[in-house]
Amino acid sequence: MADNTPTLTWSAQLSVTPPQHAPRLPGDKITLPQSALEQLLAAAPLQPIPTPSNTARVHTSTFDPFNPHTFAAESRARQQIEERQQQLPHPLTFRIVNPLNDRFVYAGIREFSAAENEVVLSAGLREVLGIEGGELEGVNNVNGDNMEGEDVERQPTRAQTEPAVVTVHAKQLPKGTYVRLRPLEAGYDPEDWKALLERHLRDNFTTLTTGEILTVPGTRNESFRFLLDKVFPEGDGICVVDTDLEVDIVALSEEQARETLQKRLERAARAPGTTSGSSVGGVLATGEEVAAQVLAGEYVDYELREWNREDELEIELTTDEPNVFLFVSPLGSRQQGRPRTDMHVWGDFSMQSSKRFKIRPTNVALEGAEAIYVSAYASPSDSGVESSTLAQQKLPLRYNLRITTNAVDTVDETTETDESTEESHAPGDVQCKNCQQWVPERTLILHENFCLRNNILCTQCGNVFQKRSPEWENHWHCPHDSSHGNDTTSKVTHDSIYHKPYTCPDCPAQFEGLPNLAQHRTTSCPGKLILCQFCHLLVPQQGESDPDLHDPEVLLSGLTPHELVDGGRTTECHLCSKIIRLRDMNTHLRHHDLERVSRPPPRICLNQNCGRTLTSASNKSLGLCNICYGPLYVDTYDPEGKALRRRIERRYLSQLMTGCGKPWCQNAYCKTGKQKTSTEPVAPMSVADITKVTRPLIEPVTVNPDMTNTAPFYFCTDETGQHRRNLAEMVAAEGVAGDVAGKAYDLAWCVAGAEAAGGDLEKMREWLGKWAPVRGEIAR
User: Which one of 23, 100, 103, 759 is most buried, by most CB atoms within 10 A?
Assistant: First the structure.
């Protein structure tokens, strides 16, 4: 800190809120009451805040740039504002002291929402200060050591009578430039902790205190622990916000450095893809069989991106090793994580040589799945499946993985008894009551004497063992289910998988067995990561302030609690410009789609060379737009339409005899249009020839105003109308609109789209996709 920088002086004694009554805070964060913010603002030092040269100056309301007498008053007012300006330092940092053991730690502020006269501390801060929950640990003297010669069990502790009280001081720390960390265990690889450490400090810490233990969570339920040994500028702590921090990792001793180097070399030799390490994994295709290997305690991850969504998916793993398991999870907006022992949708923990899943296309877990994640896992034989440390087993375990698709069989499968599989025996044979074998009746007494003396039958599973065999000595049956085995390793593994209590790493819930925990973490766990369809971020499906998963509104909406809250934001509909909530946008767009499909087709001009729709100003009885009907209009009384029919006939006669003279004309019933489209000279036509051509065009025309005409016309029109008509006919013939090929629209909708888009092809296709029904589409 610079010597001339004003400091913030504030302190208070506050009670520690028990963690069960307060939200969990990360890193070094604390929560103070609202009154603390008011006291901090009152104690903030006065300091000038000059306006930057590149920032526009904000003048007072009385300043007039055209009045020179206000310049002096404006200068004095600005000087008073700058002199009286109070500003809290950024970031706010505090020194927290436990007065009973003189332990201290630095912390950053999370928010000012704690109860009055209380402070909420993160778990790491409570551990450093020697506070268990919101109360003090045991009976300690001021130095933090247990008093000698006293019976701690008999003496009542202060924790049983009152909550812990800490002193919070406002303390401005210098910006750190260097920190030295010492790992507490050997074998850390810089590739493991470098990115994790950077993200962990950025997201969870404002300060670092010399001498504290920094715990960085890993990616496989592991953690890296470091001793914060030295900082620069030298002192008790530094601020790590808005600064370039150099981090140095130094071993605790030479022995640890040698051990770390040895473990790194062993890890490099057993890296994925090597002969002594696990296989790499990668993308799989249906019908492909992979021969691979996996080290104990590690995963090999695969991904299936393409498969026939209408067929049944079969995933099979075969191995001779009982400790290789198979886990599968779909990748979608509701499932984002790779399958693991404690987080998977489908899992096989059996000791059989073949692990197999048959996933039908109607399975609800496949809804919206972009890919299928498949993972092979080998559990350490000596520590159970929950271990994720370095494998104790030196050799990798081999397995084969295959993914196939089968057509869905709609006929119910029935179990048929195969008579050939029944054990056959000769007539006169009898069954031994001990080993259940069929023996001749004449030797039954000899067989039973030998069998009862050497063999024993397990009444629960029906298997026969030799009395002195290791299999019988280690034979076990689970008292909770029907599982059984013949060795202690399988019993330890079974108990570890199905009957060991596990705590969810994302919430306080506890479950018995890994399958129950995996089901929780992939369904109802508040901390399950989802891809929000509104903010498009990877977030927990339920935050601290979000409604419960079993809330009726959440269940009816079909959204997660986070999406229900995030979907409350509003946006503008791109079709109708109305303000709609994000979570209601799909329903709103379905209404637009229903209106689009239900809309009647527009009426277009019957002139086959015009690309306009009929408006209120058009002659709708004749079926012509105002542009095409304009040359035929006269202000005379013609109730039967005879004069109108003569004008139509003269129009055709003029077109075929002299032409319209327009350079863009492509009308087949115009001399000019014929000359433009024909490669040979056009011979002049007589009146008789023209009459033969035009009479079939004029006779079907209905000129009665009380009747609607349906006969087409072939008049010359303007360049805009002809261009729109050509564009509409092209799109209607292509059957292509919008971004998806194959959509076909009727000519009437194509004409309306060309008119709405002003002749722009891309805008026309966009308009058709929004407002026009596809040919043959029915409203549902």
Answer: 100
Work out the pLDDT band at 391, boundaries 50, 70, 90: very low
- For 637-658, b/e burial (b = at least 16 CB within 10 A) is eeeebeebbebbbebbbbbbee
pLDDT tens column, 396-444: 899 999 999 988 765 444 444 444 444 567 787 888 888 878 888 888 8
Residue type, 206: T
DSSP collapsed to 3 states, 60-116? CCCCCCCCCCHHHHHHHHHHHHHHHCECCCCCCEEEEEECCCCEEEEEEEEEEEECC
Cα–Cα–Cα angle for 217, 221, 223, rounded to 5 degrees? 35
What is the per-residue pLDDT across 333-380, written as a single tens digit (0 to 9) for each? Answer: 889 889 999 999 999 998 888 999 899 999 989 988 999 999 999 988
Burial of 7 per CB tally in 10 Å (0-12, 13-18, 19+): exposed
What are the boundaries of each domain within the chain? 11-50+65-147+154-170, 178-269, 529-567, 626-771
State pTM to two decimals.
0.61
Helix (H, G, I), strand (E, B) or coil at 638: coil
Judge residue 525's burial from the number of C-beta atoms within 10 Å of its C-beta, 0-12 exposed, 13-18 middle, 19 or more buried: buried
Count of beta carbons in the 10 Å neighbourhood of residue 299 = 21
Rounded CA-CA distance 455/693 in Å is: 110
**CATH code assigned to 178-269:** 3.10.330.10
Let me know: does 29 contact 206? Beta carbons within 8 Å.
yes
End-to-end alpha-carbon separation of the chain, Å? 71
The two tokens of residue 433 are: 């009551």
Taking the C-alpha atoms of residue 74 and residue 59, their distance in angstroms, rounded to an integer, is: 7
Question: What are the CA-CA distances from residue 254 to residues 135, 211, 247, 251, 443 (Å)?
Answer: 40, 20, 20, 7, 76
Q: Determine the Cα–Cα distance for residues 463 and 168; give it in Å rounded to an integer.
A: 69
- What would the CATH number be for the domain defined by 11-50+65-147+154-170? 2.40.40.50
C-alpha distances in angstroms, 7 versus 86, 91, 144? Answer: 12, 13, 31
- Closest alpha carbon to 513 in 483, 476, 486, 544: 483
Asked if the domains 11-50+65-147+154-170 and 178-269 are classified in one and the same CATH topology, the answer is: no
Among residues 611, 755, 585, the alpha carbon closest in space to that of 771 is found at 755
What separation in angstroms does the CA of 656 have from each of 659, 669, 673, 674, 717? 6, 6, 9, 9, 15
Cβ atoms < 10 Å from Cβ of 173:
26
